[in-house]
Amino acid sequence: MQTERLEARASASLLLHPRAGVVVPKHRRKIVERNRVKRRLRELVRITLLPGLEGIDVLIRAKPEAYDSSFAQLAGDVAAIGEWTSRISR
């Protein structure tokens, strides 16, 4: 699944608990900017995505547009990924 700022892939989990991974490529940006995007996405995944996952592992990859996005914009994209994962886990 793709949103404006993120790409997501999901697969069935072999474990009893869901897992989520976050990948933030450099995209010719400074490490400070990259770390800010990683921290934001990890927190959004922790509070928004993980509680709703059931038997699914999710990998989220940031696109270059994620660097110039606000926290609220990233939250909207993570919420859309959460809705998508809830549909495929049924």
Structural write-up:
- The chain is α+β, with helices and mostly antiparallel strands and 90 residues long.
- The protein contains 2 helices and 3 strands.
- It has a 3-stranded mixed sheet, with helices on one face.
- Helix 1 (31-49) packs across helix 2.
- The chain is elongated.
- The mean pLDDT is 94.
Short note summarizing the structure:
The chain is of the alpha+beta class. The chain is built from 2 helices and 3 strands, in the order ββαβα.
List the helices and strands in order.
EEHEH
What is the distance, rounded to the nearest whole angstrom, between the alpha carbons of the first and last residues? 17 Å
The major sheet is characterized as: 3 strands, mixed
What's the overall geometry? elongated
Question: How do the helices and strands line up, and which of them pair or pack?
Answer:
Layout: E1 6-12, E2 19-23, H1 31-49, E3 56-62, H2 71-88
Parallel strand pairs: 2-3
Antiparallel strand pairs: 1-3
Helix pairs in contact: 1-2
Comma- or semicolon-separated keywords:
3 strands, alpha+beta, 3-stranded mixed beta sheet, 21% strand, 90 residues, 41% helix, elongated
